Amino acid sequence: MENQAEEMENLPEEFLNLWKKEEQEVYRREEDGDFWTEKEKAEFRRLDKYLEELELEKKSKEQDDRGHKTLTAWKPSEMDFFMDFSVMLRLKVMNIREGVHQKLLPLKQGRQEGVRAHNKLMAHFRHYFPDYHKFMLSWEAFKDLHFPWMAGNSYITFEDISPFEAMKYTDADDGVPRFVYEGSSDSLQIYSVKVAGMSVQQKKKRKVAGSSTQWPLKVFGVVSVRDRIDPRRNLIFYRDRDNCQIITQEVCDPYLELIGPTRAVGMNHDVMIDAELKVKGAVEREDKYLIADGATLSPMFGLDLVELTSHEWKLSIAVGGLKKCVEAMIFIQVINGTWPIGFRGQFAAYTKAMKEKIVLMEFNGDDVISNDVDCIMEKSRHIVSVETSGELIVSYQAWKGEEGVISGKMVFKAEMSGRSFRYLNVSSCSLGVLVVWSRIEPFCGNTLSMSERWDMMYEAPPIQASGP
Predict the structure, then answer these.
(1) What is the CATH number of domain 188-321?
(2) Cross-strand bridge partners of residue 247
């Protein structure tokens, strides 16, 4: 077996246009029943792919009419690699929102019933989790102070998920608002989230009785972060009751399987981190809160660990601050062949300024058959913040028992926009590694006047995808 990282030839502009980001989604209140069925999702995927193929065909014909060279023939697997990603991401976000939407439906079905349910929940937190209740009230003040257009809007709640997604300024030829182009954004990087029980000494200090919840834990709920770009939840971890994560007390296991953030976290101003996690019981009424707590971090925050506590449990969140960053969104997918049978794998990302690696995906070779690596990647992390003057390093490892480790890394120079792409061969498996670059907003543009918000800066077209 041998590793070989091959630099791909520059992709044609026509093909890259498939990756143009849709206009930023405008937040709207979801009406009752406004969620997608499995049949509708399948139809959405089919139509989306069909429309993109039509767009490619149209652009190709226009170039032929002008006497330009026709598009290079691409392998079906390579075409699918690029075209499927945009659909995959939208479906992923849609599925998460759908799950939360269904959980909130009781609050939206009838005004009086919804108010009673909401008040009951707040009363529960006020009595059993007073610190978390205070945090929720501080969020209301944070929202009303820094996002005045949201003040008094009863349809924007603490539980809402942010509609803002990554890759907002990937295509620089669409123009970049001046406040983004001339500004810069520091960023908060989340490395890991660990679940732990309090020590006996900590329990005595907090006057906590013996534990009523025992290992292993069937955990579900939300861990999220909020910034001055949007006060709504930017999900780090999300599981519903029917898809809980089972964690044990062993050294390698008490970590939550993170899915986010879904976009880079800006840290020019205060950032809020909160967790609302439950342990699944035999029946729903036996579910217990594991953690319900939150914390606010200032830009001057110098620690590398945030601890959220509730009763006898705590979350240890490993974080780090980075200066003047861009957003890197990383995709990995099998192009040809299959992952070597029985081999475990790990893909991680980091920069020289980071204290830890961010594990993008990790899997046991015994559980991987065919192209299951793609399915695993859909549930994994994609977003990494990179210093504008630095480099993104993507590392990989593959191993099987005592046969030795196949490892290597790829280095990508940070870009303000555009894409970088490389092939990676692990044994007979050929993978594609795509990095999509975008600027990070220094703050929410809605705080500016319309003229300031739409004062665009234009720069040269984004560099076509290539390896460093």
Answers:
(1) 2.60.40
(2) 217
